[in-house]
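ok so I'm stuck.
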Amino acid sequence: MTTTLGFIGLGVMGEAMCRNVARKSGAAVVAFDQRAEPLAALARDGVAGASSAADVAARAEIVFMCLPGEPQVRAVGLGPDGLVARVRSGHTVVDMSTTPVALARDLSQAFAARGADFADAPVARTAQAAKDGTLSIMVGGDSAVFERLKPYLACMGSEITHCGPVGAGQAVKLMNNMVVAQTVVALAEALAVARASGAVDPRVLFETLTKG
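replied:
not stuck anymore, here's the structure
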């Protein structure tokens, strides 16, 4: 039987990610978003529209979520009309949003009680990387689940890293964000020093730093 993939959340990142899965995976894809526009655009790539997140769960064996944050993921995953009420034994839910480690563990426990698997797989890089299918994807989950998901994740990313058990993907993403933030601060300080010195053109400094 051919696997059907589900995708919930078609924002700036999610729409492009869903499109790449539809074009590259060879699987049937069903998707849901509160807005009609991305669903209409994805229909040209063969993506079927669903009436709700629960409808996606009823029609797909593997469901990906790419949502703004914890409140949305908690509602879609654990709400009374959410995925936990519809998933069945043998199904897998993947949260590609950036959310707390504790939520990943809550989701895993709730889905396990229904006989379903869970993995957290937050993404890094830009909207252009989402379009190009070159995201960095950090995965937390069981090794067997990771291997099952990897071919589909590879449709969306060029770097797929198994970081450890459930929650590890979110933990690594948080640390990645910390490093990026500190790098931005360091660059800002370096440019300020360059301006203050009066001897270095900040543009020259920036161009030099980008070369490594």
